[in-house]
Structures are given as C-alpha cells and as structure tokens.
Design brief:
This protein is an alpha/beta fold. It is built from 5 helices and 36 strands.
Length: 358
C-alpha cells in the first residue's frame, strides 16, 4: 500500500503505553504537545498527532487511543477506557465526557473533522464516522449504541446506486436517546429530542420531539418542552433537594436542614484512617441572589446553590470565601470546586442540569 495507516498504532502503544501518566505527560511535552496541569493518561493509552493541545484536569482512561493531525481537548474532559478516536481533526470542548468503548473513525477524507462542544456526553458503544465534518453543539447528549454516519456507500455508483458524503450538524442542548441512527446530511436543531431506536435524516426543527423510522416530529412548542413559571421551578428544586438529602443520608452522611435554605452534612464514617469525619454546609436560594443571601466569611459554608442568577459581585465574594457556587438559571458553576460541590453537581445531572465551569 502506498498510503500506510495501521488500524491500531501498535508501535506507539508499545513505546509509550506502559509509561506511568506523569512520565507520559512529560515525554509528550518534550515532543511539543501542549499538555495542561493535572492531566491523567491511562496505561496503554497514547496520543498520536502533529499538533496536540490538552487542557487542565483532563482524564484519559485505560487503553484509549487518540490519533489524528490536530487534536484539541479542553479542560475537565473525561475520555473513558477502550475508546478509539481516529480522525484528522478532533476538537472536544470543556467539561465534555466520552464514555467507554466509543469509536470515532472509519472511511474519511483529509479534511474530516469531529467537533464536540462544551459539557457534552457521548455514551458507551457509540460509532461515529466523520467522513465529512460532524459538529455537536454545547450541552448535547448522545445515547449509547448510537450510530452517526457521514457517508453511505457500498455498491457501485457506476451501476446507479447512491453514494453520499455529507456533513452532520447536531445543535446545542440536543438529546439523542439510545440506539439512534443519524444519516449523512442531517441537521438537528437546538433543544431537539430524538427518541430511542429512531433513524434521523434531513432536518429536525429546534425544540421538538422526533421519533420513529424515519424520525418524524410528534410534539413541538408550546406543548414540548412545557413552559414553567417560577413557582414550578421552585417546587422542582425543593423536590430535588429532598431527594438529595435522602441520597446523602443513605451514603454515609447525616443531613440536617436548618431553616428553609441551609443544610448541614455530617460524615458518619471516615473515608479512611487518614481522613477525619468532616462537616459540610450548603446554602440553597430559591430565587435570584441578593447580597443578604451570601454567607459571611466566618460562616464556613462550602457550597452555594441558587435557582436564580448569581450577580458577578456576589460570585466574587463567594470565591474569595472559598465557597463553590452553582447558578441553575445560567447553567454555570465556579471554576473553584470542592468534594461536596462536585457531588451536588453530579447529582443535578440526574435531572438534566449540566453546568459550565466559568
């Protein structure tokens, strides 16, 4: 073959794969790769590209291969074990997560590209073929076993069979359920939901529910998604907080609600001999935040959760007091975090709230 490209870069895996993460990062930096702080690269995992940029706090799992010409990965990205990303241009935004055994590759061109936005998640066992550019917007979820194909070709075009190579565009805040098949040339609008086992072709409008074979719009605004008033949102958050307290009570904590907005979490058992039992405090505000809601520096709060917007000045005060904040209305959280805040942020994902670090 004139153009040699082994299916798996065995040589790189054998040369670099066995190195521990810190040594692998150091070697890659010597090779000219731009690797951020606190980056972890698992055993037998390798990065093969001409230009590489990896952000801070990114984690790449066991036996995962990233291969291309240009690879750009943001901060706080997680790539699971046994995942293979193989395309000329790979872009992954801050806070995104690719689960285990995801394959990106197949038939491609020199300009093939996959671009994944911020705070996206691609579930396990997905197969994505960026024959032409595949763009996935911010805060979008791709269900497991989904297939996204940028080409359809097998039988000869000279015999009249269709051959199709087209880009695919999936908007922001899109939800693809499990086992969705996306065909070349598909454009899915922002906020759309595609039901399980659907086959998607053509255009799907924004903020609608589509399902079937082929997928058809079965619900749209104003029925879908439904409109919520402030009281509805307050009730939802109150229910989530109660579910969260129950969850923590069953997970080694004793939770006490003080008034209508403060919660104290006490560890009932230490994580290890070296760790002492700790007390955590969270404040929940069910409206837009004002200055009176901000804990004072001596109050020893750890997390500030607000249903309404947290103004910039209040955000700065919280940061100065080492309090992690979560702004539900803007889907944002502070860059600074702690163990309790990370657990709460993870718990909120159960209800579809994924926050951007700012």
């Amino acid at each position: 073959m004139l153009i040699e490209k082994p299916r798996i870069p065995i040589r790189q895996v054998l040369i670099f794969g066995l190195f521990p993460s810190f040594l692998k990062v150091w070697i890659y930096r010597l090779l000219g790769y731009r690797i951020g702080k606190r980056v972890s690269i698992g055993f037998f995992s390798v990065i093969c590209a001409d230009q590489v940029e990896v952000g801070n706090d990114t984690n790449i799992g066991f036996l995962t291969i990233l291969r291309g010409k240009q690879i750009k990965i943001g901060n706080h990205v997680q790539i699971g074990a046994l995942t293979f990303l193989d395309t000329p241009v790979i872009e992954i935004g801050d806070g995104s997560k690719i689960n285990e055994q995801v394959f990106v590759g197949g038939l491609q061109f020199p300009d093939s590209k996959i671009s994944i936005g911020r705070n996206c998640q691609i579930m396990q066992l997905c197969f994505i073929n960026p024959a032409r550019t595949i763009t996935i917007g911010d805060d979008t979820g791709i269900g497991g076993h989904s297939l996204i194909f940028g080409h359809t070709s097998w039988l000869s075009q000279f015999e009249g069979y269709p051959v199709n190579f087209q880009p695919i565009e999936i908007g922001s805040s899109v939800s693809l359920a499990w086992r969705v098949f996306v065909l070349p040339g598909t454009v899915i609008g922002d906020g759309a939901v595609v039901g399980a086992n659907s086959v998607v072709s053509g255009k799907v409008p924004p903020r609608c529910l589509a399902l079937g074979f082929p997928a058809r719009v079965v619900a749209k605004e104003p029925e879908f998604p439904c409109k919520l008033n402030e009281n509805d949102k307050i009730e939802i958050l109150q229910n989530i907080v109660q579910e969260m307290i129950h969850y923590f009570n069953q997970s080694g904590f004793s939770c006490e609600q003080i008034g209508d907005r403060d919660i104290v979490f006490r560890q009932t058992r230490a994580w290890s001999i070296l760790h002492k039992k700790k007390i955590w405090r969270i404040r929940v505000v069910y409206r837009s935040t004002c200055h009176d809601d901000i804990p004072e520096s001596g109050d020893l709060f750890h997390v500030f959760l607000s249903l309404g917007e947290i103004p910039p000045n209040e955000r700065n005060i919280l940061r100065e007091n080492n309090v992690m904040w979560i702004d539900i209305s803007r889907k944002e959280q502070s860059e600074y975090s702690n163990h309790l805040g990370d657990e709460i942020s993870l718990f909120l994902k159960r209800y579809g709230l994924r926050t951007f670090r700012v």
